[in-house]
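Possible regression after last week's pipeline update?

I re-ran a chain I had predicted before the update to compare outputs. Posting the input and the new output here so someone can diff against the archived version. Not blocking, just want to make sure nothing changed silently.
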Amino acid sequence: MLVHPTADRRLATEHWLLSTLDGQRRSRARLEWQEHGVTLLPLGTLFSAVRLPHRLVLAVAAETGGPSADVDAFLDEALAGGPVICDPPGHRYYALVPASMPTTWHKAVDEWRRADVDSLGRDTYLGVPRVDLTEFDRATYATYWSVPMASAAMLCPPLSVARLIAAGQHQLVSREAEEGGPE
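New output (post-update):
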């Protein structure tokens, strides 16, 4: 069995992510990662993203606070190790999925929008953190990989994402019913 060190996997992942850009824009993105820790990458060619509101993720993870190692571990398990970006300032998570998901799951996506979930594809850009930013930093509250990419092109299974959304919606409805019930 061939084992690739973490540094090799990170380099391959970085190269794969940046292959969404042409040469000059790729150099600019590397510089942005170096200087700011995040760069904008186009969606819809190699991968797309499902935007998940923080409250939905916390509801299904049975957590009450903000981003945490517990939420990250939950997402890792729930999404079969698929990559997830956490945007603490925006109170959102982004599950990276196959590029075709916005098209093939369009009926489900229409339903999800009522819960502030959206599937982002072509003509959309996503702030993607540097591949080594894998822990929540309370001091900077910066975007990070809640679940890092295990290797290039390894994405979240769409069915796992759909199940997470359904469970989150169920938890939110249940919570609202409890809070609005008779006292």
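Follow-up from reviewer: compared with the archived run. The chain is about 45% helix and 20% strand. Marking as no regression found.
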